[in-house]
Amino acid sequence: MIPTSTIGGPMEFTLRLIGVWPDSSCKFLQRVAWGMAMATSQLFQYWYLFSHIGSDTLPDILDSLSLCLSNSLLFLKLNILWLNGRIVYNIFAAMAEDWNECASTYSKTQAMISKAILSHRISKCTIGMYTACLVLIGVSNMLAQKSAGSEQPVEERQLIVKMQLPFEYTVSPVYEIVMIMQFLLQYTSAVMAGMLNAFIVTLILHIAGQIDIMCHELLEIPVADDKRDSRTAALRGVVHRHQRIIAFADSIENVCCYMALMQFLSNTFVICFLGFVIVTSLDSVDANTVLLKVIPYYVVVNVEAFILCFTGEYLSSKSKTISQAAYDSLWYKLNPSESKILLLLMVRSQRQLTMTAGKFMDLSLEGFTSILKASASYVSVLHAMY
């Protein structure tokens, strides 16, 4: 099936679920429900964390803290999207307008379709990755319960997500109900976290499609003397498209820069904590169970950080092609007044489109390496202290 939008079905469903999609019904109630559910879950998680600081071992504390930070990051991301709802709606409107404008030309449509197909594949892979991670966490929990066997007291039953609940949950069927509710909440949260990361990738791919169309238009500017009117219209269209690309990139930056900053910091600490848990569990008796739970989560967090930094790198490198396409065009066959338009466009395109982490630093592959270096340094310090 040929896609008609850069945003695929799973992503649209997720955006409707959290009350961000423009024409979704009961947006306010959805936001309140998700806010209350996640705030309550966070309260019980941090309650458990603070009440077990002196009793649990350091690897157990860091394991719990890693999941707390990931859930807190998702909660803050949702609030940022809700607070910037008007900008998000303008982004959706701009995307729909771009698709309607490209529908009349085959080459433009093909450029957008190729980016849309890639976006849909990334969304599906993200859902599969997070689902596999959560299933492995549940399997590791079941193996831990089975290895304890009948010798494990009822009051020591462990949940999928460690929480300090205000009621007795270790007896059946309350324990099973709590486990099912935790699994459903964590699965939905994992899918939402993955879709929000894929959402940023989708927006960048949409810009990339528009840049490809703009480069094609630059190379196809007519230079014949009898096509002055069409040449003027082509130059006007190129400049207008460039302005729309810049405005679209600025809108993404305004919404996602603080989300990227929080994810940058959160992923650094989570990778550090999980790395420490992996290192310290290698010599333990239940090493296989711990590694089955931690390693998939560790991989997912690394992939999150890589995708975030790669999208920033991809946007910067893609924006460089605008000035190159302007230079490769037949600007030397244009009138001086017309060639000056391309000169101004080339000068403006020298300022690369970027994504930043809180407007402090540009997101790039160099930033991803800095995350790994900082996490490895923290792991070595914690291991020396442990």
Can you give me a brief rundown of this structure?
The protein is mostly helical and 386 residues long. The chain is built from 10 helices and 2 strands, in the order αααααααααββα. Strands 1-2 form a two-stranded antiparallel ribbon.
In terms of quaternary structure, what is this? single chain
Alpha carbon gyration radius: 25 Å
Kindly state the mean pLDDT as a whole number?
85
| Net shape | elongated
Q: Which stretches are poorly predicted, pLDDT < 50 over at least 5 residues?
A: none
Provide the spatial order of strands within the biggest beta sheet. Answer: 1-2
Query: Structural class, judged by helices and strands?
Result: mainly alpha
H/E series: HHHHHHHHHEEH
Number of strands: 2
Number of discrete helical segments: 10
Q: Estimate percent helicity.
A: over 70%
Sheet bearing the most strands, described?
2 strands, antiparallel
Count of discrete domains: 1
Distance between the termini: 55 Å
The fraction of residues in strands falls at under 5%
